[in-house]
Amino acid sequence: MDSTVALIVAAGRGRRLPGDRPKQYRHLAGRSVLRRSVDSFLAHPAVDRVKIVYNRDDDALYRDAMADLELAPPVEGGETRQDSVRLGLAALADHGPAKVLIHDGARPIVPAAMIGRVVDALDHNRAVIPALPVNDTLKRAADGVIAATVDRTDLWQAQTPQGFRFDAIRDAHETVQDGAHTDDAAVAEAAGIAVALVAGAVENIKITTEEDLARAGRWLAAASETRVGSGFDVHRFGPGDGLRLAGVTIAHDQALIGHSDADVVLHAVTDAILGALGAGDIGEHFPPSDPSWRDADSAQFLRHAVELMAARGGRLSHMDVTIICERPKISPHRAAMAASLANILGLTPNRVSIKATTTEGLGFTGRGEGIAAQATATLALPNGDGI
C-alpha cells in the first residue's frame, strides 16, 4: 500500500496564457511546466506514487512531456477543477493511500522542504495547506475607484500541494459537488474538516501569465548552480570486425575489448555526468565483476546517469567529447555519433561536441593498441532547498 500519493491536476486549458498549447505544457528552462511539477514529487523520498489528471485532448503533449517516465496511466479530468480532483481521487481508491497531496500542475517550482512540511503535518491533521501571509495592503474597488481598505490581519495566500488524509478528502469531494470551490481546502472546509497551515514558499508560483513564466525562469536560474564534470576511459583493441563509439557501430578490423560493449565514449560521458553530480563513477554503479553487465549496451549506463541527474532536478546544457586514436578515422562518423549521443542525453545535436585527435604516434593510442575518450559535462543543478 502506498503511504503518500501526489495527485497532480493538469486538465485545465489555461486560456489566460496565449500560445499553441495549454500553459502546463509550455517549456520552462528546457522542460515543460507540468514535467517540472511531476519531477519534484517523483524525487521526494516521502512520496510513493504520482498520479496525473489530464485533458484527453492533450494526449500527444502529455506523452511527449512524460515520455521517459514510468507512470501509471493518467486520469481524464472533468468540466471543473473540482470535478477533475474528484475523478483523480476515485482512481486512487484501489490503492488506498493514507495521505494524498493535491497539486496544481501549473506550479512548477515545488521546494522539497515544503513538500516535507505538508507530509509531516498530516501526521497530526486531516488537512494541511502551505500558505504565505498577505503582506501588501489590500483594497476593495468599485467602478475603478477604491471603495474600502481590507484588513489583512490573519489573511493568507493559499498554495499547493494541499495535503489530506485520503479518506477524509475523498469523502468531502463526494459530498460537496457544487463545482464552486477553487481549491481543495475549500471543499474540506465545506465538509467540516479543519485545515491547518504550514509555511509556503514564495517561489511556488502558479503560472497564469507570460510574466509568471518569465518570473519562474528567473527563480530557476537564481536557484541553480553550474556544475562541470569530467570523464576519461580507455579500452584496448582485440579480435573482431567492428566497434561501438557513442552508440554507433563502426566497421573496423579490430574490436574494443571490455566487460560491456566497451563503448569508450559512452563510458567517459557517463563518468562526466556522475562526476558533476558527485555520484561516484561508472564502476560503482555497474561493477565489472557483476556478470549481469557482460556485453551490456553502454547506453543503459548513460541513461542511468541522466536519470540520477533528472531526479535531482538537474539539466544538462552541453557535452564535449574528445576521442583519442589513430584508427579508425572518426570524421566520417562524427555526425551520426553526435546525433546518437544527443538522443540518449535528451539534447539537441548543437549541444553535443565530438572531436577527435591523435597522439602523433606516441603512447598506446599512437601504437594503435586502443582508444581513449575524455568528456566534459556542463549542467545546472538546483542548490539550497532542493528546488
What's the level 1 CATH class of the largest domain? Answer: Alpha Beta
Residue ranges: pLDDT <50 for 5 or more in a row? Answer: none
Largest sheet: 8 strands, mixed
- The total domain count is 2
What is the CA-atom radius of gyration, in angstroms?
25 Å
Query: Which whole number gives the mean pLDDT?
Result: 91
- Give the class from helix and strand content and strand pairing: alpha/beta
> What is the name of the CATH topology of the largest domain?
Spore Coat Polysaccharide Biosynthesis Protein SpsA, Chain A
Secondary structure: helix percent? 25-40%
Q: Strand portion, in percent?
A: 25-35%
Summary tags:
single chain, 387 residues, 2 domains, alpha/beta, 60s Ribosomal Protein L30, Chain: A, five-stranded mixed sheet, Spore Coat Polysaccharide Biosynthesis Protein SpsA, Chain A, eight-stranded mixed sheet, elongated, 28% strand
Task: Describe the protein's topology.
Layout: E1 4-10, E2 27-28, E3 31-32, H1 33-42, E4 49-54, H2 59-65, E5 75-76, H3 81-92, E6 99-104, H4 112-121, E7 127-133, E8 138-142, E9 145-150, E10 156-158, E11 162-165, H5 166-175, H6 184-190, E12 196-199, H7 210-222, E13 224-238, E14 242-245, E15 248-251, E16 255-257, H8 264-277, H9 282-285, H10 299-311, E17 315-324, H11 334-345, E18 352-357, H12 363-366, E19 370-382
Parallel strand pairs: 1-4, 1-6, 4-5, 7-12, 17-18
Antiparallel strand pairs: 2-3, 6-11, 7-10, 7-11, 8-9, 13-16, 13-19, 14-15, 17-19
